[in-house]
Specification:
This protein is α+β, with helices and mostly antiparallel strands. 23% of the residues lie in helices and 38% in strands. It is elongated, with a radius of gyration of 20 Å.
Length: 127
């Protein structure tokens, strides 16, 4: 009986996790990115080899290319598993990472920014 309850709890916890975006950012932070990217030195090819293809690409008015990478990892909050209360809404929280890179006309990194922030998604009465 205890074993079945433990298995059911494990499945519920696993079902409450979600991840979307570029998985290469999973273990990255400002310090690790600064070891890989050097402004004025690192090329687009080196960035692509390290992080893969960007999620979004855009251009400045001057024609410089901007690559954007992001990763969101959220998991269901404990309130979602409380009977009856979970009928009134849901709540999930986690972290979002974003890496934005500006390349110059020679396809070399001009500037970059790595950010990490806490995120929360709430629905129903939990807003």
């Amino acid at each position: 009986m205890f074993r079945n309850a433990l298995i059911a709890l494990s499945l519920l916890l696993l079902a409450g996790c979600a991840s979307s975006g570029n998985q290469s950012l999973r273990d990255q932070d400002e310090a690790t990115v600064s070891r890989v990217i050097t402004e004025g030195v690192t090329t687009q090819t080196q960035v692509r080899d390290t992080f893969g293809s960007p999620m979004e690409t855009s251009f400045t008015d001057g024609g410089m290319e901007i690559w954007e990478y992001s990763l969101s990892e959220v998991s269901a909050d404990a309130i979602n598993f409380v009977p009856v209360i979970n009928l009134f809404g849901s709540s999930a929280s986690g972290q979002k990472k974003e890496l934005t890179i500006l390349f110059n006309e020679e396809d070399v990194v001009r500037r970059y920014s790595m950010t990490s922030s806490d995120v929360s998604h709430k629905t129903g009465l939990f807003r």
